[in-house]
Amino acid sequence: MKILKHLFVIAIAFLTIMTISSAIVRASDAIDDDVTPNNLSKKELAKIEKSYDDVWNNIKYYRVTKAVKLKVTFYDKNIEGKGKSVRVKIPKGTILSGDKQHIDGPKGTVINSFEINSDTLSYRLLKPVISTDTNLLAYNATANAKKMSSINKYFSRIKRPAYMPAYSSGSLYIYPLNKKKFSPFGAITNRLKITPDGYLEFTKNNSPEVETNKEFNLTPDAHIKISKAVIKNNTRYLYYAHHLEGVSDKKVAKTGKNMYRLAITNLHRPFSMFDGDQGAVLMSRYKVGSTVYYTESGGYSA
């Protein structure tokens, strides 16, 4: 604990009432600014890749080499502005998606940082600290240290796990076939989340009209540990011990931890949202079982 006390200072983004207000405004704007998905041909996609640098998300993965506790901020679902910060235990061996970076501090100092997207944390990690009244709003949690060598002792870079799709944070949403327009920022359909530490979570969307931070509950409707992942061509086959409610998986064995299998296929039918002259969010389509999903894969701006 002494090491952690001086090693980590957790800076959580959006820790003010103004943040909640801006989240509501963003959700409102997203609903007002629904746009038609623009399907991209191979030629159009190649032109975008040539014209803009780093159009695809660069998701990095790290293994926790020593158990740590990260401070995460939650807000009350029902009372605007009421929040609390708690420490989430991250066991040794856990895989997280994040990034190491240098941040300019006060008076010319440099802060060495490891930043994660809190929304990628699995229910397994969040369960001990959440309640029915809390909802995750602070999307980034940052572990800071005076020296990058201290950060390196806790987070070791690894290759992307086989169960994680390329360029995606792991959140996939059912493609809204009955709606010609929708927002790239506010999901209106149910979500399947693949977590960096190897869990599948299916969560129903509360409502397309609610604030950004209330679209999905912290407690998923169903979740399961992935026991095995096999990649064949464009398809990831994820295996687990029992049926996952909400998805069309397949029973492939009578018993055991690999009794059910979910096929996740990259359809290689990317689309963009917003005017290409001004920039856009890039999305990828996936077929999950028998249902088409989409996930954010990148973006660019003019």
Key traits:
twelve-stranded antiparallel sheet, single chain, disordered N terminus, 2 domains, 302 residues, 5 helices, mainly beta, six-stranded antiparallel sheet
Compile the SSE list and pairings.
Elements: H1 2-7, E1 11-12, H2 17-32, E2 38-39, H3 42-51, E3 61-64, E4 68-76, E5 83-90, E6 95-104, E7 110-117, H4 123-126, E8 134-136, E9 140-145, H5 148-154, E10 155-158, E11 171-174, E12 191-194, E13 199-203, E14 222-225, E15 228-232, E16 235-240, E17 250-251, E18 260-266, E19 271-273, E20 279-288, E21 291-301
Antiparallel strand pairs: 1-9, 2-19, 3-6, 3-10, 4-5, 4-8, 6-7, 7-9, 11-12, 11-21, 12-13, 13-14, 15-16, 16-18, 17-18, 18-20, 19-20, 20-21
Structure description:
- It is a single chain.
- This protein has about 300 residues and is mainly beta.
- The chain folds into two domains: about 40-50 and about 160-300, no CATH class; about 60-160, no CATH class.
- The protein has helices spanning about 1-5, 15-30, 40-50, 125, 150-155; strands at about 10, 40, 60-65, 70-75, 85-90, 95-105, 110-115, 135, 140-145, 155-160, 170-175, 190-195, 200-205, 220-225, 230, 235-240, 250, 260-265, 270-275, 280-290, 290-300.
- It is globular, with a radius of gyration of 20 Å.
- Mean pLDDT is about 85; it is low at about 1-30.
